[in-house]
Amino acid sequence: MCKPRNSCSLSVPRSYYGIGFESLNRRTNMAPLSIRIGLAGLAVMGQNLALNIAEKGFPISVYNRTTSKVDETVERAKLEGNLPVYGYHDPEAFVHSIRKPRVIIMLVKAGAPVDQTIKTLSAFMEKGDCIIDGGNEWYENTERREKAMTELGFLYLGMGVSGGEEGARNGPSLMPGGSFEAFKNIEDILLKVAAQVPDSGPCVTYIGKGGSGNFVKMIHNGIEYGDMQLIAEAYDVLKSVGKLSNEELQSVFSEWNRGELLSFLIEITADIFGIKDDKGDGYLVDKVLDKTGMKGTGKWTVQQAAELSVAAPTIEASLDARFLSGLKEERVEAAKVFKSGGFGDIVTDQPVDKQQLIDDVRKALYAAKICSYAQGMNLIRAKSIEKGWDLKLGELARIWKGGCIIRAIFLDRIKQAYDRNPNLANLLVDPEFAKEIIDRQSAWRRVVCLAINSGISTPGMSASLAYFDTYRRDRLPANLVQAQRDYFGAHTYERVDIEGSYHTEWFKLAKQSRI
């Protein structure tokens, strides 16, 4: 089989990628004129999404700057079921293989690589053609690019894609935002490619204008940070205080995944506890370095929370936990310093009732999750108001029910809450969620107190509890903080009994009172 310089063509049935390298120098040997869509960027996510599209009955052209990735993708297509995937080594041939109006999805690293890919491909595109950025891009970059593309006569979408490698291959959650015309051009493809949830349909919807699709995906990832941190804390308390073995942890999380906590993250956590180390004795999870990586969307979420003045302490705590996990060498030295002060092995004052602890941790995890999702939804709403996007929070909960990393049965409840009241100020005050938190708050407090007394950090659960306790109080000590601000900076204050803005000469009054 010979490999041409420009493209790989194949004919295929249904299933996965296909291969078949033919001479591509002549237009007649390129992909058939029925190709409506192309994909540029063939790392694993890009390959899997291309295969998914082809498997759903849509022939697709693929391109990558590193040509070996093109050959690899086409080979996979053949091995996984002879799918209609056509590979191109040359960007011009790639673009011209797609019929007008062309739709090209990019899955490349955010930032400069996106701009470079747009520059490369747009040189061969025509007015009315569309580019879709499927990466985790900063939403303002998407808005800048959409404006530039519009001026050139092109359509542009920023589309969040969630679900990881498996989701991309078998059905992700898709969050397209930007040109509505562009969305309509590809809607039929997205409806088939997205994850399918029997009771609520395909996990895709038109999010809104501008960079809304990328923004919603960013907040989705922020919620994901919070979710993962809360699960890690539940694990830590059960393992370090309850002394549960990996076998017991697997059993507990498997049981939780049959109830209110049923979700992708709980499911994979149970799986992780059951994997033996193939390079030594014991379980693999115990050999994994306790140092969490990140790619930036969690940080962006926290930055947006600050910009929008929206409290998101659970998500912020999860980001801080990742920062601290990165200080592995410092933590090892700190552990030596403080061991002499009694901070060594985890010891509890009283014997632990394992079953009671498991039940309490389950309730605490669920209650804390409500707070994390409430914070994420409030961030989305605040941005939607600022930008005029008119985002539908219940619809976002619906498309997150399948395909994505935070998919969970819990999202049904969130959709129902926003269906009942689209203007719901906070998930915490939805009648059903409020009742659930009230029913679980005693267990939640017991877990946080037990962790504190045992020297176990639970920043996510603690931050969630503080968020709940702050939000539910009609009077906070903020009156003192505002008085302090007026004292040293003449920032003024409002009164609870008289309307208006006031300033007091606190220093003079205090000085007089000391005479």
Automatic annotation (TrEMBL):
SMART domains: 6PGD. Its EC number is 1.1.1.44. It comes from the Eukaryota. Residues 213-507 form the 6-phosphogluconate dehydrogenase C-terminal domain. Pathway: Carbohydrate degradation; pentose phosphate pathway; D-ribulose 5-phosphate from D-glucose 6-phosphate (oxidative stage): step 3/3. The active site is at residues 217, 224. InterPro entries: 6-PGluconate_DH-like_C_sf, 6PGD_dom2, 6PGDH_C, 6PGDH_Gnd/GntZ, 6PGDH_NADP-bd, NAD(P)-bd_dom_sf, Pgluconate_DH. Substrate binds at residues 136, 162-164, 220-221, 225, 295, 322, 485, 491. It holds the Pfam family NAD_binding_2. One of its GO terms (biological process) is D-gluconate metabolic process. It is an enzyme of class 1 (oxidoreductase). The keyword Transferase does not apply. GO terms for molecular function: NADP binding; phosphogluconate dehydrogenase (decarboxylating) activity. Keywords: Gluconate utilization, NADP, Oxidoreductase, Pentose shunt. It catalyses: 6-phospho-D-gluconate + NADP(+) = D-ribulose 5-phosphate + CO2 + NADPH. NADP(+) binds at residues 41-46, 64-66, 108-110, 136. NCBIfam families: gnd (TIGR00873), PRK09287.1 (NF006765). Belongs to the 6-phosphogluconate dehydrogenase family. Homodimer. PANTHER family: 6-PHOSPHOGLUCONATE DEHYDROGENASE (PTHR11811). Catalyzes the oxidative decarboxylation of 6-phosphogluconate to ribulose 5-phosphate and CO(2), with concomitant reduction of NADP to NADPH. This is 6-phosphogluconate dehydrogenase, decarboxylating. It comes from Phaseolus coccineus.
